[in-house]
């Protein structure tokens, strides 16, 4: 198993920028009263989630990362990569389970498949 992913797919940078703006806007509000200081946790959590959550593509597997934890999905268990109506991509596994692939969309699915070295299968447009 290679230690470095071939491709890292993350959420749009716009979410990160929005979280930073929310954090900057929340600081004066939270600084005005100790009771409002927990409001800072919301943009900080969004920043952490945006930074961490995504899908890493390896030749043998996909690693789907969330804010806390993640899962490894070997390509041998994936029967289909299919986009939904909103363009988000999910992996259908051989046991019938479905895993949403964070950050992977209909638009970047060909890049993911090319990076993995696996042929394009069902679920393509």
Automatic annotation (TrEMBL):
Q: Which residues are in the Low molecular weight protein antigen 6 PH domain?
A: 52-117
Q: Which InterPro entries match?
A: CFP-6_PH
Q: What's the protein here called?
A: PH domain-containing protein
Q: Which organism is it from?
A: Actinoplanes subglobosus
């Amino acid at each position: 198993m290679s230690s470095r992913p071939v491709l890292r797919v993350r959420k749009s940078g716009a979410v990160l920028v929005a979280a930073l703006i929310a954090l900057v806007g929340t600081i004066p509000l939270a600084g005005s009263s100790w009771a409002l200081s927990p409001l800072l946790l919301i943009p900080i959590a969004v920043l952490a989630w945006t930074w961490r959550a995504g899908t890493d593509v390896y030749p043998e597997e996909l690693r789907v990362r969330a804010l806390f934890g993640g899962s490894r999905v070997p390509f041998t268990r994936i029967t289909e990569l299919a986009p939904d109506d909103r363009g988000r991509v999910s992996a259908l596994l051989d046991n019938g389970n479905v895993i949403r692939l964070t950050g992977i969309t209909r638009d970047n699915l060909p890049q993911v498949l090319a990076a993995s070295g696996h042929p394009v299968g069902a679920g393509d447009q």
